[in-house]
Amino acid sequence: MDSRYLQDKEELKQPRREIDEDRRSFLTAGLVGGAVAAGTLAAGMAHAQQVAQAPALSDKVWWPHPKWGKDDQAGASNYMTPAKVLDTVKLIKDGKVYRIGRIYESAMPKFGERAFTLRIPGSPTGGPFGVNKLIYNDEYLSTEIGQTGTQFDGLAHIGIQMGKDGDKSEMRYYNGVTDQEMNSAYGMKKLGIENVKPFFTRGHLFDLEALKGAMMEAGQEITVADLKAALQKQNMQESDIKEGDAVFFNTGWGKLWMKNNDKFNGGEPGIGLEAAKWFIDKGIALTGADTWGTEVVPNPNKDLAFPVHAELITKNGIFNHENLDFTGLIADRKYQFAYIFSPAPIRGATGSNGGPIAVT
């Protein structure tokens, strides 16, 4: 994400708070069928009050998770079962491995004021030792390790402020976990990346750049119609996308990487709420793209800030993999593959670095 959007007070005003009409009717209808139990009325009023305080798109609670329950911290990585692995293996035909992650280096584009600094403390760092005169080198890395370069967003990364601004007991994350019960100075006490299961699942790549005939531009939204057209162009079927699969978007934006970092960071093409909800209904486990946020920025609705992140990660436990490189897959016209990635098990981290691969 680019901090300039979070600093734009005109584009990112506090969303208007509205009470759902059905619930307003509930509160004003009086007696239903001649009588309404006092407890039911009180519960309805409490719920309506919560809705009145809810930000846009969050008028309904999203917890507990209907499939994995109130205590789950693994989200959509729960789809990674032995059956899923065996089904995924069927996609491997030629045994070719593609590195789809970027090289980590200080000059890469980074969101906001995030940093990536590597130092070798002395050369060599130590030695010589023994009669064989062994020497060695170490590195010191200072960075937001889960949120720079090719980055995997965990479930503690994105939340939604419910209730009053600043109320940590109403800052809600996946499965309703609050900031108050989760956050600490030395790592998240809940929803840390160590809870995410390794990914070995079916990957589907949508080449939107080829569909459009050119690199997409910042603020250009990938629609469901675009996705269906890409499937047709690539001789794929919508039914190919199964529960627990991963979906990826090549927009051409990745061509700006290390060439025009300012433009790369200045916005991006990507999916909007329409496409996000389409994939949510299909039960996908992960989205990914050659952009820094996967979703369209700026959003067509200027009052919304990164709503796709909230819908996928916070409300549904669906993960997001950013700043990927599909160059090899695109060159070989490989649009379906085994996506393999094991998040770095850093206790309490909000995300992960690492080297995802695609195997065809």
Low-confidence stretches: 2-48
Strand order of the largest sheet: 1-17-15-9-11-13-14-6-16
Mean pLDDT: 89
Count of all domains: 2
Which architecture of the largest domain per CATH? 3-Layer(bba) Sandwich
Q: What's the β-strand tally?
A: 17
Structural overview:
The chain has 360 residues and is of the alpha/beta class. The protein folds into two domains: 36 residues, no CATH class; 245 residues, 3-Layer(bba) Sandwich (Glucose Oxidase, domain 1). 24% of the residues lie in helices and 17% in strands. The protein contains eleven helices and 17 strands. The strands form five sheets. It has a nine-stranded mixed sheet with strand order 1-17-15-9-11-13-14-6-16. Helix 2 runs antiparallel to helix 3. It is globular, with a radius of gyration of 23 Å. The two termini are 31 Å apart.
Topology:
Elements: H1 3-6, H2 21-28, H3 38-53, H4 82-89, E1 97-99, E2 116-119, E3 126-129, E4 134-136, E5 140-143, E6 151-153, E7 160-161, E8 171-172, H5 179-182, E9 199-207, H6 208-212, E10 221-222, H7 224-233, E11 246-250, H8 261-265, E12 270-271, H9 273-282, E13 286-289, H10 307-316, E14 319-322, H11 327-331, E15 336-341, E16 351-352, E17 357-359
Parallel strand pairs: 9-11, 10-12, 11-13, 13-14
Antiparallel strand pairs: 1-17, 2-5, 3-4, 6-14, 6-16, 7-8, 9-15, 15-17
Helix pairs in contact: 2-3, 9-10
Name the features.
2 domains; transmembrane helix; Cyclase family protein; alpha/beta; 360 residues; disordered N terminus; transmembrane; Glucose Oxidase, domain 1; 9-stranded mixed sheet; two-stranded antiparallel sheet; single chain; 17 strands
